[in-house]
Amino acid sequence: MDHTMEQVQRLIAEKKYEQAAATLDKAISEHPDDPAGYTNFGNLLIAMGESSRSLAFFEKALSINPAYASAVFGYGNALFELGQHKEALTRFSDAQKFGLDNGDLFYMIGRSALELGHSGQALAAFQRAVELNTKDVEARFQYALVLARLGDLDTAEKQFKTVIDADPSHADSFYNLGVIATFRDNKDKAHGFFEKALELNPRHMLAANGLSTLNKGK
């Protein structure tokens, strides 16, 4: 069953949804008392943009094993996608209590906390996510954003630069480095960062506005 679930997760990542569904149908029929099949079918539905339908599969998994952390986490993801951020955060906390401890969990705790306006909790969660998965560019970017929002510009700057080292095409990080440079009244540096953001993403309106403001000040 473990090998089958690994195969399913790979198919979902590759967006081969029909193959994943067929594999899961077979797994569920052969192992109706294993929560893994229902959990992964729920994850598949979220990937397909059908989060509301996924809830029934997570509920089925949890009816078999109420402490099945992967199903609790999946349930939280579905609730987050449905805009129920407070309920999602509760599910993520439960998943942690049931033994889940990975970067994805803390990333989603951070996302939920941000939606609820809990910047301190979000900062701690994103920091933990980055510690657990140093290659998670999006978690590091969110961490940098919260650092900047809370006024720790030096650490935020380092984190944005680390994001760019991992992904040189990350326009939003260049834009935010431009904002930090503007705040420090280093207009030449800011100009360069905004231009780079626009080069990478010509539709980056915030970078265009930043550049326009700098040019007006000349």
UniProtKB/TrEMBL annotation:
Q: Where are the TPR repeats?
A: 35-68, 103-136, 137-170, 171-204
* Key words, A-Z: Repeat, TPR repeat
| Repeat found in the keyword field | yes
UniProt-listed Pfam families: TPR_16 (PF13432), TPR_19 (PF14559), TPR_2 (PF07719)
Q: Does the keyword Nucleotide-binding apply?
A: no
The protein's superkingdom reads: Bacteria
**What is the name of the protein in this document?**
Uncharacterized protein
Q: What is the lineage of its organism?
A: Bacteria, Bacillati, Bacillota, Bacilli, Bacillales
